[in-house]
Structures are given as structure tokens and as C-alpha cells.
Amino acid sequence: METRPLRAHARILVSSLVGTAVEYYDFFIYATAAALVFGPLFFPGESAAAQTLLSFMSFGIAFIARPIGAVAFGHFGDRIGRKSTLVVSLLLMGGCTLAIAFLPTYAQVGWIAPALLCTLRFGQGFGLGGEWGGAALLAIENAPKGWEARYGAAPQLGVAVGFCAATGVFLILGGLLSDADFLAWGWRIPFLASAILVLLGLWIRLRIAETPEFRAALDKEPPHAVPFAALMSHHWGLVLAGSAGVVSTYALFYLATAYALAQGTSVGGWPRATFLTIQILANCFYAVGIVLASIHADRTSAARTIAGGSLVTAALGLVFSPALAAGSLPLVTAMLCAAMLTLSFNNAPLGRWLSQLFPVRVRYSGVSLAFNAGGIVGGALLPIAAQGMSAAGVAHYTGLLLTAAGLMTFVGVKLARPAAP
């Protein structure tokens, strides 16, 4: 094994990390804007709780689009390669994000405004459907033996970087602008800034080569004519188990970020800047946890690491809602930091675990579909259910959604058995 594998493959890891950071920056600025401003701007005439609920429903549209994007990008990723597919996914995601910056509001054009917002949100999700799986495979299929989970954690670090950048830019704007200016035009700036980041990610991705494992697979036999058909004909059970295995990742992340932000600033009454600062601190725990969890996964197994994280997620769900509603900022801070640290043990080994489930010729399709199908439950349905429960006055039960998500992931990991290469 190479003595310094990280240095030898620095360009691959940077490409995997930066490209994912750019795309998740785009994704998270929508999540933050959905929690803070999209309700009154695009869904007026409703109560504050209903505005937030509708805003989160628009946020959830992307999770419907992501499995569709996973099938489309997985097809080309398994037929023509990882690199080219990742370039296209980055351009699509970035283009939709930039277009959101120029959207008119409901006050300007009526129902057309939320329709356009939802359309572009669908485009964001479609592009992101091909991103994570390809970025994970780009790293893992280049990894030296024994370093697969650590290499596969590079996209997860990109997620942390993207979240920190998205939260940070909203925090800075909140300090520079009045609430009226932020609502009127300041929220558009993060979406405009995404164009610069997309160009950076594109420049890096165009400088990398195809993965050796994919090239070797093509040398042995041609790709499937329709990789998705081959995947679902022979490995549909692994897709279901893999999807269940990622539910806790999505549920824990979005309940501890977008939902907690909406609750903390509206129901809790804390200043936006204060809560965003807490979330940046919690994100630091996530980043450190990714490193620790990926090392643990390489030394034991990815499945064991995720299973342990899922059980902690289930336990955390029992205290999540009481801590969020306690009115104590230190308690909320501790809970969110614990949630993000737990998230890393669910999340960091996912690339390695999912890649082990599927043969190389359908791996892009399988990893992407499982990852994004799980997002429908954990990233769309559960946050919407949490906001609906809050609007109905039963927010103290929302933590049980995390408990259910953790148990679902535990079952998925235990049922999954890797397919033959």
C-alpha cells in the first residue's frame, strides 16, 4: 500500500470534496431560505406556520426529483463514466440555483412565482441526484486498499463545507442588512454567489481522469444497455435495503438544521444570527465526526459504524423535541452538536457501504438510487411531517420521527448483503 495515499490522490479527493461542497452549498442555501424567507415571499396569505409548511413542501420537491436524477445520471455514469456525468450534474444544479436569484415574488406575478420556484427546485434535485453517488465512487474507486471509507468520506466533508458556507453567508448578510432589506433583496445574494463556486468546481472536475476500476470493468465486458433495468432485475432488494440505510442520515440532518432553524427562530424566538451561529458550531462537530467515523469504518466495517450511529439516532430522538422546546440556549446547542456528531457516524461510511452492495457495472445507478430514494423518506416526508406536527400543536412528538428513522436504518444495514462483483 502507498505510504502517503492522500498525497498521491490529492486531486481526486479535492475534486470529490469541492464539487460536492459547491452542489450542497446550492442545496443548503435553499434550505436556509426556505426556513427564513420563502414562506412570506412565495406563499403569502397564510398563517406563519402554514407559510413555513408550504415552504418546506417546496423544499421537499427536490427529494422527489433526486431519484429520477439518480436513474438518469446513473445510466450515463455506468455507460460512459463517472467524470463526464459529474460535470453535467454540477452545471445543471448550478444553473437552477442561479436562476432562483432572479425569480419574481408572489406579490409581483402571483401564482407563477411559486410555480417557477418549485420547477427550479425540481431541477436542483434532479442535478443533485447524480452528484453524491458519482462523487463517492470517484473517490472510492481510486482508493488504496484499506482506505476506502476515508476516501469515500471526502464528499461528506464537502457536505460539511457546503453547509458551513451556506449558513455563513446568511449569517453575514443578517449582520450587514436590516430584516427589511434581507427580505426584499438580500436573500438573492447567496444564490448569485453560487455562480462563482460552480465555475471553481467545474475547473477542478475537468482536470481529473476516469476511475481505474470503471475502466477495468469496461475492458472485461461492455456496459449494460440499460443499467437501471439490470439493477432492478437482479439487485432490487439491495436498493431497498440501501435506501433504508440512508434514511437516518437525511432525517437527522434536516431536522437538526432546517427544521430546528425554523422552530428556533419562530417558535423559540431566538435571533436568526444566534441560531445560525449555533448551527455553524454544530457543523464543526459534524466535520470532526466524519474523520473519526471514516477511520473507524476502515478499521472495523462501514456497516458496523452505520448501525451504531443509527441506534444512537434512535435514542437521540427521545430527547430531541424536549431539548428544542426547553427554552435553554445551552441545551439546544448541546443537542444540535450531539445530533451533528451522531450524523457523521450515519453518514461518513455511506459511500463505502453502498459501493460494496453493487457490482461495478451498475454501481453508479445503485448507489445513486438508494441514496436518493432514502431521501424521499428521511429528507422530504419526515421534515414535512415534523412541521405539520408543529403546526398542529404536537411538536413535542417530532423527535420520535428520528427514532423511527434510526430503527429503519438499523434494519436496512442488517438486511443488506453485498452482491457478487
What do these coordinates show?
With 421 residues, the chain is mainly alpha-helical. It has one domain (9-415): MFS general substrate transporter like domains (Growth Hormone, Chain: A), CATH 1.20.1250.20. 81% of the residues lie in helices and 0% in strands. The protein has 21 helices and no strands. Helix 2 (10-36) crosses helix 15 (236-267), helix 15 runs parallel beside helix 20 (363-391) and helix 17 (302-325) runs antiparallel to helix 21. The longest helix has 32 residues, at 48-79. It starts with a helix and ends in a 6-residue tail after the last helix.
Classified by CATH, the class is: Mainly Alpha
Helix content: over 70%
**Cα gyration radius (Å):** 20 Å
Number of domains: 1
- The CATH superfamily name is MFS general substrate transporter like domains
Structural class: mainly alpha
Shape: globular
